[in-house]
Amino acid sequence: MLENLVQFLGRLHPLIVHLPIGILMLAIALQWLVVFPKYARFRDLLPLLWFAGFISAVMACLAGFLLKQDGGYDEEAVDLHQFLGIALTLITGFVFLIQSQRFPQKLLLPGVLLATFFLIGTGHYGGNLTHGEDYLSQPLSALMGQTPVKKVRKPITNLNEAIVYADLVEPVLEQKCYQCHSSKKQKGDLRLDSPESLLKGGEHGKIITVGKADESDLYKRLILPAEDDDRMPPKGKPQLTESEIQLIHWWLDQGRGDFTKKVAEVPQDDKVKILLSSITKGAPSENASTEPSEIPTAKVKLPDASVLQKIKELGVVVSPLTRDNSYIALNMVNAPNFSDADLFLLAKISENIIWLDMSETTITNKGLVHLKKFNNLTRLSLDQTGVSDVGLASIQTLPKLKYLNLYGTKVSDQGLKLLANCKSLKSIYLWQTKVTPQGVAALQKQVGKQVEINFGIDTL
């Protein structure tokens, strides 16, 4: 209980620290203004302001000290911020004593100047700890026409020779995760800026389960609802795109979290090949649009245990996507004989299923009729099945579907017209189908650029 109290009081520091900042800024400004006769009547307020600044600075220092015990920050940076904060507090108290006629008035000007200097320094380095080193300097550099210095990554000219981690995964982590998990800051005692750190994990243990992406915290936290406290990156921070999440899943699952393997050395299904085909210059674009979590925030009943058991007996891989197991992903990779009748069984827990991969199964248009009940489904893979245009009539009504893979099916331009009615779609995969470039162009015109239509890839 004491530990929780200390943690609570420490986390008040970001709130308390604004009190001395505001009070001291007012005191310093007024200190210069009272030189003018017009403002001389405010001189009597100065001792009170400096005293209030001193007391609030002491409170901020104490809370800051407790916050430091919580960890998660670069030790050298915290020590510097702490030193400046304590120095500012002592100087503030000294200026108050001068104002109270306890020390010679000739020391007032040096005291005020020192307080100004340390106030700026303390605030600056505190901001660096919270927002990163370039938080203040980056917009100033842009204003002055200076280009920020960034780590230069060579364009990928031969994708097969690219290192999966260094050339594809690391740039994503650098853009979206380093601000809170690097040498400068270690939220949850976790660093993601080196292979050693990734393998070590954080205060909650390891984040990589070799060869099992769905059991790895590094992946699981990416797909939690935005409101979940364990969601990473947290709400309000730049989020990973769907493609970036898929990339990390592939690296953890098929790449087994290896840091040295080349792209050609890691197994790739056709979905991954399509994903990799869009990567021509290393990392995904820094300005790539972010997408909200695919996991609904609405509470649903847990899936019926007896139905789940029957599904597992078919060879279906069941992966929980939430801590309470209310939302799940189903994969038929070990159930090639999965049929239309089996899909009827899935319909009994349709509200719990948000990812459904029926690739290379015996599913047909007839079975897809059952999908009309899958109102929470966000991903659907039907690649290399017997599905055709007729089956898309059942898919077009799915209200939350974002990802649809129709690779290797009999879908044609006629079926694409139905997909225009599915307003939630973000990505459609149509490689090796009966669709034509003209049909793709017509669909793209209808749905707009916010929908990514993958029609073909280069040989990898």
TrEMBL record:
User: Where in this chain does the record put each Cytochrome C Planctomycete-type domain?
Assistant: 177-236
Keywords attached to this Swiss-Prot or TrEMBL record, sorted alphabetically, are: Membrane, Transmembrane, Transmembrane helix
* Record has Transmembrane as a keyword: yes
KW Transmembrane (keyword) present: yes
Q: Where does the DUF2231 domain start and stop, copy by copy?
A: 12-119
Which SUPFAM superfamilies does the record cross-reference, listed alphabetically? RNI-like
Q: Where are the transmembrane segments?
A: 15-36, 48-68, 80-98, 107-127
Ranges in coiled-coil conformation: none
Pfam families named among the record's database cross-references: DUF2231, LRR_6, PSCyt1
Q: Where is the signal peptide?
A: none
User: Which protein are we looking at?
Assistant: Ribonuclease inhibitor
Q: What high-level taxonomic lineage is stated for the organism? A: Bacteria, Pseudomonadati, Bacteroidota, Cytophagia, Cytophagales
